[in-house]
């Protein structure tokens, strides 16, 4: 069953119905669902779908010719193979499609270019000369992010400026991801998303008919299953020096977030080298460099600033529980690892991804105009604040603090402070007071709203406070997971 991807399909449809030739580049990390989305898009349209292989240029041209000459085009009557790529690409204009667009999809386009570096310039000449004015749509698809971003779309590339649309596919959001296990409880949906993230290939490995625990055991921890070896496979495919990347990712998974911490922990010990390696992981969509929501452009440009987080939930899980227990799992002790390592920590492990789910929920509220104001930026806030400390001389001290969600309006006169709790007890009134205290010094200058998100509800005192305060909004797990915007 095909799930989600409405935005991607709407983008492709809008290009399909536009006049003039369309040259589209669609790319994204491996397993993100590019091929499946393209198949869904073209399933009710006349089209040619060519998947490039890693092979010589001659073989590629031969396979491409066979594919095109299977269509009812004039060339099939007098040749059995195209002599050149120029001739082959030109034949797109002959594809029979009635009055619809002639649609050619080239999947794994980087393989084609690897076999023949001249392909982009052949395509560019033909595009300028003929194709751009024809009723054609050519989609170039690829997963090699560095090739697409640094070469194909770079200024020096012949195809630069020709593409009429460029779309980078990213992982599914929480709301689409949980459609892979519709019968799970809300709590298990959050935990399953915390384990697998939004990559459809990973989500698909879970059997929605069996429990979350059984799925983790059978489909991640058991040697031989797809997800057991996926991380290794992906790193080997995309990067050289996998041992170094392994130690860097493990360092981040263990909670090291700053460049020098990661450098020391992974024993790379050279921050500029570490920074280069991390950049590659960011490009692959495995790691993200985060800044406090109020960080300026100067801070963001400084390579030593920012904190690193694993954005890919599955990688985070894999390094925390598979990599860390590799010998036991290799020996087949799945139940032992699950019982002693995964089960006791799983709930706590989900609390960080839960914050991300709540941010996605806030974004939904904004899209539905269900927030008290429109925010211009939203994210985690980190900074210094004054906290109560009875042991200090004046009863207070300055401490580093974090706010899970801070949304700020364009005028910076409205602030929404969100706190997320994924735990087995209700959000308490004193935790609410702690939240209020975090940004207290600036409060007089702006309007503050509080939104609290809790897995296990709220204590009576907060519920009463919220009933008398329209600037305090409470959201339960079922509100957040359903994504409904009419509850505020
Ligand atoms: N929207 C979706 N709904 C359901 N299953 C999906 C969806 N997208 C992808 N999948 C499944 O996830 C797996 C990976 O998808 P796909 O092959 O399209 O990814 P890709 O980005 O083309 O990967 P690669 O670059 O590694 O070839 C496939 O088994 C596919 O069936």
Automatic annotation (TrEMBL):
Residues 318-424 form the DUF234 domain. This is ATP-binding protein. Residues 2-206 form the ATPase domain. The keyword ATP-binding applies. The keyword Transferase does not apply. One of its GO terms (molecular function) is ATP binding. Keywords: ATP-binding, Nucleotide-binding. It comes from the Bacteria. Gene3D superfamilies: P-loop containing nucleotide triphosphate hydrolases (3.40.50.300). InterPro entries: ATPase_dom, DUF234, P-loop_NTPase.
């Amino acid at each position: 069953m095909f799930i989600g991807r409405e935005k991607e399909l709407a983008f492709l449809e809008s290009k399909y119905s536009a006049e003039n030739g369309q040259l589209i580049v669609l790319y994204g990390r491996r397993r993100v669902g590019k091929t499946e989305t393209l198949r869904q898009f073209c399933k009710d349209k006349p089209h040619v779908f060519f998947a490039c292989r890693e092979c010589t240029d001659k073989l590629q041209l031969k396979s491409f010719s066979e594919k095109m000459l299977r269509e009812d085009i004039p060339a099939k009557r007098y040749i059995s193979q195209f002599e050149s790529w120029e001739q082959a690409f030109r034949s797109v204009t002959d594809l029979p499609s009635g009055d619809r667009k002639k649609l050619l999809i080239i999947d794994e386009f980087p393989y084609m270019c690897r076999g023949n570096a001249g392909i982009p310039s052949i395509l560019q000449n033909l595009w300028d000369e003929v194709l751009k004015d024809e009723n054609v749509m050519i989609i170039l698809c690829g997963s090699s992010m560095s090739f697409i971003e640094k070469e194909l779309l770079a200024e020096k590339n012949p195809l630069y400026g020709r593409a009429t649309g460029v779309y980078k596919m990213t992982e599914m959001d929480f709301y689409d991801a949980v459609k892979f296990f519709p019968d799970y409880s809300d709590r298990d949906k959050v935990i399953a998303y915390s384990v697998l993230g939004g990559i459809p290939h990973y989500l698909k490995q879970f059997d929605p008919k069996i429990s979350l625990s059984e799925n983790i055991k059978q489909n991640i921890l058991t040697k031989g299953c797809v997800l057991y070896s996926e991380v290794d496979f992906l790193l080997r495919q995309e990067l050289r020096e996998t041992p170094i990347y392994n130690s860097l990712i493990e360092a981040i998974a263990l909670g090291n977030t700053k460049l020098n911490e990661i450098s020391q922990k992974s024993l790379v010990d050279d921050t500029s080298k570490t920074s280069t390696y991390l950049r590659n992981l960011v490009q692959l969509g495995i790691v993200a460099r985060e800044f406090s929501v109020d960080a300026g452009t100067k801070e963001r440009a400084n390579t030593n600033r920012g904190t690193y987080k694993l954005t890919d939930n599955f990688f985070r899980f894999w390094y925390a529980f598979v990599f860390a227990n590799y010998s036991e799992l290799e020996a087949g002790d799945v139940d032992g690892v699950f019982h002693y390592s995964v089960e006791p920590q799983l709930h706590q492990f989900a609390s960080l991804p839960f914050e991300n789910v709540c941010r996605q929920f806030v974004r939904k509220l904004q899209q539905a105009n269900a927030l008290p104001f429109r925010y211009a930026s939203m994210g985690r806030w980190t900074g210094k604040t004054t906290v109560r400390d009875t042991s200090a001389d004046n009863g207070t001290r300055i401490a580093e603090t974090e706010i899970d969600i801070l949304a700020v309006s364009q005028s910076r006169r409205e602030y929404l402070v969100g706190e997320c709790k994924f735990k087995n007890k209700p959000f308490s009134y004193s935790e609410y007071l702690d939240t209020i205290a975090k940004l207290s010094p600036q409060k007089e200058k702006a309007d503050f709203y509080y939104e609290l998100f809790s897995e296990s509800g709220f204590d009576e005192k907060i519920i009463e406070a919220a009933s008398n305060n329209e600037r305090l909004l409470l959201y339960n797990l079922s509100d957040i997971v359903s994504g409904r915007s009419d509850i505020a």
